[in-house]
Amino acid sequence: MADSLLTLDDLAVHFMVGSTFSGGVKTLKAVDGVTLEVKAGECLGLVGESGCGKSTLALAIMGLLLPTRGLIHVDNQQISGSTPPDRMAMARTVQMVFQDPYASLNPRQTVRRTLADPLRLHGVGDKAEVEARVMDMMAKVGLRPEHADRYPHEFSGGQRQRIGIARALILKPKLVICDEPVSALDVSIRAQIINLLLELKDEMGLAYIMISHDLGVCEHVSDRVAVMYLGPIRAH
Ligand SMILES: Nc1ncnc2c1ncn2[C@@H]1O[C@H](COP(=O)(O)OP(=O)(O)OP(=O)(O)O)[C@@H](O)[C@H]1O
Ligand SMILES: [Mg+2]
Q1: Which of 47, 55, 57, 61 has the most ligand 1 atoms within 8 A of CB, as the residue to mutate?
Q2: Which residue, by CA, sits nearest to atom 12 of ligand 1?
């Protein structure tokens, strides 16, 4: 497993739901016993019905939800367990593209600021280098230089998702979790965004976890597809 970028070993994320006033607290097993592996440069498709725990799994890999049980290793670093993961290091390794680009972008930040802030935070180069990286990333996702000073509401849905993708890739991560990256978009532009993701994967040597309801999309883009049922993954 030396060349594994991500390994999940019997991962479980359970939520306590309800209250003592409304009939007691129950355990909701959103993710229960998931074991899988993603290698560098590989695309793993993850499909499953609504509510089966796909987004919960993504958040656990990002280190944003604490697993109830099991192990997560990203780039040979254990991110589950009692010591919280090093967020700065994690951000350079794993990033996420969200379903709704509007909700996931800060409405008060221009595209330039959205892309430049992570670079500055991670101490990447001087002002000129930050600007060059921002412009380069914008070009890679198909945005024009004059878009740099615009705010999210001034873009179309497809362009907004391009900004979301640029933000995810600006720190050159190794793994990108795409959680339903096109399902909020008009059907006519879905293929464009999927193709852009595929081009960038090859160009930047990325690995993806491609989460989708749509088995067709998943099969088209992925090397392997894992099917998630309520709780465990049964086949992959
Ligand atoms: N913070 C939380 N607290 C309690 N329950 C939660 C929490 N987050 C998610 N859940 C529950 O966990 C289950 C899995 O949710 P999740 O969002 O992971 O599903 P999903 O597979 O991504 O669904 P969709 O395809 O609709 O996006 C759902 O039943 C949901 O209600
Ligand atoms: Mg989801």
Answers
A1: 55
A2: 30
| Ligand 1 centroid – CA 51 distance (Å) | 5
Instruction: Find the 99 Cα to ligand 2 centroid distance in Å.
Output: 8
Pocket test for ligand 1, best of 54, 98, 218 (most atoms within 8 A of CB): 54
Instruction: Note the pTM of the prediction, 2 decimals.
Output: 0.92
In DSSP notation, 182-207 reads TTTS-HHHHHHHHHHHHHHHHHHT-E
- Nearest residue (CA) to ligand 1, atom 17: 55
Tell me which residue has its CA closest to atom 14 in ligand 1: 53
Pocket of ligand 1 (CB under 6 A): 15, 17, 28, 30, 48, 50-56, 213
Per residue in 117-165, pLDDT tens?
A: 999 999 988 999 999 999 999 999 999 999 999 999 999 999 999 999 9
What residue ranges define each of the domains in the chain, with the CATH number in brackets? 4-17+27-109+161-235 (3.40.50.300)
Digit-coded pLDDT (tens) for 109-118 = 999 999 999 9
